[in-house]
TrEMBL record:
Residues 308-317 have a biased composition (Gly residues). One of its GO terms (cellular component) is cytoplasm. Residues 294-317 are annotated as: Disordered. Residues 23-217 form the BPL/LPL catalytic domain. SUPFAM superfamilies: C-terminal domain of transcriptional repressors, Class II aaRS and biotin synthetases. It holds the Pfam family BPL_C. The keyword DNA repair does not apply. Residues 294-307 have a biased composition (Low complexity). One of its GO terms (molecular function) is biotin--[biotin carboxyl-carrier protein] ligase activity. It comes from Oerskovia turbata. This is biotin--[biotin carboxyl-carrier protein] ligase. Keywords: ATP-binding, Biotin, Ligase, Nucleotide-binding. Its EC number is 6.3.4.15.
Length: 317
C-alpha cells in the first residue's frame, strides 16, 4: 500500500476538534513512533505532572513494542491502526476504578457500531470482537477457540501511583490479512466497515469515552446506578457463554459466565451450581450464547486492575 492508503493523522486538525474548548481533552500529542504509548505517557506524567492535565491523550502513528497481559508484546505497521493512551483522573473512589476496562470496552463498541457500522462486542473485560466477513450468512471461516469472531481492538488499563489511570487502546483499522499477527485478529478494513478514516474514528472514540466517563463520574463511580453495568452486559460476548477460566494462582473454573460483580468482576457458575467471583485469570470462551464457538485459544488473559497498579490484558495480541 502507498502512503495515500495510509494517510497521516493531522495533529492540528485533531486538536481543533478534540481539545478544549471544542472537545473533551486538555492535551493531545501525536508522535510518529513509540515503543509503548502507555509506558511513554506514564513516564511523561511522572516527570512533569503539571504538563499533562487530564484528560490527556498520546497517540502514536507507529507503536513498535506495545504491551499486553503478562508482558506479551505486539506491534502494527505504521499508520494502519489507532494506538493511543488516555490519561484520566476520575473523581470516583479508587476501588471503583476496576470498572475502567469494561467502560473503555463499552465506549469502543459504541463508537464502532455508530461510526463504523460493525456489530462489535466485548470479551471480558478488555477485548473488542467483531463478526468475521460472512458470519451472518454462515460462510465465515471458524478459527479454533474463536469461532466466527475476530479481535479488532484491545485495551490495557494501568493505575498510577498518584491516583490517575492510563487507558491504552489499540484498534486495527487498515491492516491487510497478511499484516495481522494471528488468524484470530482482523481489521475494520477487512470486515467492511463503513469508514476506515482514522481521524473520524479517533474523534468518535474520544467523544464516546468522554460521555461514558461523564456518566460514571456523575454516579460517583457506581456503574450500576449509572446504568452502565447493564449496558456493559448488553454488549458482552462473555455473559451467557460457557467459559474456562485458568486462575492466576493455579487451577481452573469451568461454567457459565452469568453476570458482573459490583466491581466489574466476572461471576461464573459451575454445572453443580457452585458460584465463583473472578477478578483475574485467562478466560477461554467455550461456547457463546448464540451457539458459535469463540474465545481465547491463544491464552489471551482477562483481569481487573488492582489498586496497587496492576494492569489488565492489553491491545491486539
Amino acid at each position: 500500500m502507498t502512503t495515500v492508503d495510509h494517510p497521516a493523522l493531522r495533529p492540528g486538525f485533531l486538536a481543533d476538534l478534540l481539545v478544549v474548548p471544542h472537545g473533551p481533552l486538555a492535551r493531545l500529542e501525536v508522535v510518529q513512533e513509540s515503543a509503548s504509548t502507555n509506558t511513554e505517557l506514564a513516564a511523561a506524567v511522572a516527570a512533569d505532572p503539571q504538563a499533562w492535565p487530564a484528560p490527556a491523550l498520546l497517540v502514536a502513528e507507529h507503536q513498535v513494542a506495545g504491551r499486553g497481559r503478562s508482558g506479551r508484546g505486539w506491534d502494527t505497521p505504521a499508520r494502519t491502526a489507532l494506538t493511543g493512551s488516555l490519561l484520566v483522573r476520575p473523581d470516583v473512589p479508587r476501588d471503583r476504578l476496576s470498572w475502567l476496562p469494561l467502560l473503555a470496552g463499552l465506549a469502543t463498541v459504541r463508537c464502532l457500531r455508530a461510526t463504523a457500522g460493525v456489530e462489535a462486542v466485548v470479551k471480558w473485560p478488555n477485548d473488542v470482537l467483531v463478526p468475521a466477513p460472512g458470519a451472518g450468512a454462515g460462510a465465515a471461516r471458524e478459527e479454533a477457540g474463536w469461532g466466527t469472531y475476530r479481535k479488532v481492538a484491545g485495551i490495557l488499563c494501568e493505575l498510577l501511583p498518584d491516583g490517575g489511570a492510563i487507558v491504552g487502546v489499540g484498534l486495527n483499522v487498515l491492516q491487510s490479512e497478511r499484516e495481522l499477527p494471528v488468524a484470530s485478529a482482523t481489521s475494520l478494513a477487512l470486515v467492511g466497515a463503513a469508514t476506515t478514516d482514522r481521524e473520524v474514528l479517533l474523534t468518535a472514540l474520544e467523544e464516546s469515552f468522554a460521555q461514558t466517563l461523564g456518566r460514571w463520574q456523575a454516579a460517583a463511580g457506581d456503574a450500576v446506578e449509572a446504568g452502565l453495568a447493564e449496558e456493559c452486559a448488553e454488549v458482552s460476548a462473555t455473559l451467557g457463554a460457557q467459559v474456562r477460566v485458568e486462575l492466576t494462582g493455579g487451577g481452573q473454573v469451568v461454567g457459565e459466565a452469568y453476570g458482573f460483580g459490583p466491581d466489574g468482576s466476572l461471576l461464573v457458575r459451575e454445572a453443580d451450581g457452585t458460584g465463583h467471583v473472578l477478578h483475574s485469570g485467562d478466560v477461554h470462551h467455550l461456547r457463546l450464547r448464540d451457539g458459535a464457538r469463540a474465545g481465547a485459544a491463544d491464552g489471551t488473559s482477562a483481569g481487573v486492575p488492582t489498586v496497587d497498579g496492576g494492569g489488565v490484558p492489553g491491545p491486539l495480541n
